[in-house]
């Protein structure tokens, strides 16, 4: 069985499986996909990674290659034995190669793996850790032009090492991503997020290349405003808010994400909301954590504003706000209230 038959799949949370597509029509008439709210880690985050098994050599390969993403994305990978680690890596050769996408990792029970490397080389490690930081499969990009020989693909993946049903093959290979799962860039045949496919699987392209390295577009995208721009920690970037005061804010660049922090001294119901005419979405993290997601919201407030109401315990919280469309900008106000 050729290496091309070893196909990764990204794990999707059950609540997202049947989520409808969200698209916007551009002036060109082409629909562009919008990323699922909350998949991206907070810019500047430190992501803790723990190995659950594996040989010293397997672990060393991950430590060597996975951090290449952090040379371009404003993230830090911290390898260790902390049982609270956000990412848990296994090396089960009978379970394929897969990862949960972005902050979906936080919804997995702490005793369970969030990423598996059933086979291992530089390209596979970079690919799976690409999923972990929030990237999607390039071959299922709505901008991709691959036309599949569907029955050939279905027949091949029904055998070893995948043993997939037709439904699994359609979900993991043949179907374009739902718009809430894609990264939104143009199709990149050099992307490490594109697996190598044999010539007989496709009608309109030759065999896709075996990409072992981050492509120029991979590097540019993860350091762009849409993902993890700049350098610096969450504390460096976060704008402090005082409870019961409103603050003026502005998304001045396309894809920009604003980050705010506030402290809760006495636990109780708190409302974090935006005001204005800018269509924004918001994700809330805490307490005292940059990676534990409490809630996210789009259009829960007045008009197209975001509103999160939650019973918060004492601690420090972080609210990330971005425009619904990565192509638009606008001003708004944000306020934290307690009741």
Structure explained in plain terms:
There is one protein chain. This protein has 339 residues and is of the alpha/beta class. It folds into two domains: 220 residues, Collagenase (Catalytic Domain); 101 residues, Jelly Rolls, CATH 2.60.120. The protein has six helices and 17 strands. Strand 13 and strand 14 form a beta hairpin. The longest helix has 11 residues. The protein is globular, with a radius of gyration of 20 Å. It starts with 8 loop residues before the first strand and ends with a strand. 39% of the residues are buried. About 7% of the residues have low confidence.
Find the count of extended strands (DSSP E, 2+ residues).
17
Written as H for each helix and E for each strand, in order along the chain, the element string is: EEEEHEEEEHHHHHEEEEEEEEE
Portion in strands: 25-35%
What's the CATH architecture name of the largest domain? 3-Layer(aba) Sandwich
Q: So, the CATH homologous superfamily of the largest domain?
A: Collagenase (Catalytic Domain)
CATH topology of the largest domain: Collagenase (Catalytic Domain)
Structural class from helices and strands? alpha/beta
CATH class of the largest domain: Alpha Beta
Helix content: 10-25%
Quick one: biggest sheet?
Answer: 6 strands, mixed
């Amino acid at each position: 069985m050729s290496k091309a038959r070893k196909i990764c799949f990204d794990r999707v949370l059950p609540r997202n499986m049947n989520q409808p597509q969200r698209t916007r029509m551009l002036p060109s008439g082409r629909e562009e996909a919008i990323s699922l709210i909350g998949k991206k880690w907070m810019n500047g985050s430190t992501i803790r990674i723990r190995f659950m098994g594996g040989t010293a050599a397997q672990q060393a390969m991950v430590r060597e290659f996975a951090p290449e993403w952090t040379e371009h994305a404003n993230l830090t990978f911290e390898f260790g034995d902390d049982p609270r680690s956000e990412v848990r890596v296994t090396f089960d050769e009978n379970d394929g190669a897969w990862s949960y996408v972005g902050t979906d990792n936080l919804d997995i029970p702490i005793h369970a793996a969030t990423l598996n490397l059933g086979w291992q080389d530089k390209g596979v490690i970079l690919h799976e850790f690409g999923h972990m930081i929030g990237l999607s499969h390039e071959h299922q990009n709505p901008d991709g032009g691959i036309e599949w020989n569907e029955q050939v693909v279905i027949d091949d993946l029904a055998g070893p090492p995948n043993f997939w049903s037709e439904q699994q093959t359609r979900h993991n290979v043949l179907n374009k991503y739902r718009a809430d799962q894609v990264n939104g860039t143009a199709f990149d045949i050099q992307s490490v997020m594109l697996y190598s496919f044999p010539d007989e699987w496709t009608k309109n392209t030759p065999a896709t290349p075996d990409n072992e390295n981050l492509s120029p577009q991979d590097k540019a995208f993860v350091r762009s405003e849409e993902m993890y721009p700049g350098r610096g920690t969450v504390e460096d970037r976060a704008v402090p808010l005082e409870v019961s005061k409103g603050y003026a804010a502005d998304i001045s660049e396309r894809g920009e994400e604003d980050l705010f922090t506030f402290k809760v001294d006495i636990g109780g119901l708190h409302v974090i909301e935006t005001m204005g005419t800018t269509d924004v979405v918001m994700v809330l993290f805490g307490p005292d954590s940059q990676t534990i997601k409490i809630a996210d919201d789009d259009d829960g407030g007045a008009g197209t504003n975001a509103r999160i109401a939650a019973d918060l315990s004492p601690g420090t919280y972080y609210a990330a706000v971005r425009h619904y469309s990565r192509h638009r900008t606008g001003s708004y106000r944000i306020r934290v209230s307690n009741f």
